[in-house]
Amino acid sequence: MSVPEREPDGQFSSFQEWVNYATRWIGGRNSACYDAKDRRCRIGKDFMLAQDENAFPIRFWHGEGGQSAKEQRASIKAYHATMKANYPWRYQ
User: Fold this and answer.
1) How would you write the chain as a 3-class SS string?
2) The pLDDT of residue 75
3) Closest listed residue to residue 63, CA positions, set 13, 4, 2, 16
């Protein structure tokens, strides 16, 4: 998969911003992330490599992750489980 041709839906300016906001900004949304060197970032290791190589910002596009409908449903379920675990007061 290559970098989408449209403008990104957002970006993470730093590794710390990704750590703090990834779940809120892209969790469960079938997003595709690419670093400043146009490498796909899928897992934490990719984001750590981008930090080590000064390849931030990392841009993201919603709906460009290439997941099947079943995978997208699983991602959304995982997102909600993570949110419930981290922010239980929102689910009372």
Assistant:
1) CCCCCCCCCEEECCHHHHHHHHHHHHCCCCCEEECCCCCECCCHHHHHHHHHCCCCCEEEECCCCCCCHHHHHHHHHHHHHHHHHHCHHHHC
2) 67
3) 4
> Please, are residues 60 and 36 in contact by the beta-carbon 8 Å criterion?
no
Q: What are phi and psi of 59, to 5 degrees?
A: -95, 150
Question: Any residues with CB less than 8 A from the CB of 55 and at least 6 apart, and which?
Answer: 35, 36, 37, 39, 49
Q: Tell me the per-residue pLDDT of 32-89, one tens digit each, with 9 for 90 and over.
A: 999 999 999 988 899 999 999 999 999 998 877 776 777 767 766 776 777 787 778 7
Predicted TM-score (pTM) of the model is 0.70
**φ and ψ at residue 42, rounded to 5 degrees:** -115, -35
Nearest CA to 24 out of 89, 85, 79 is that of: 79
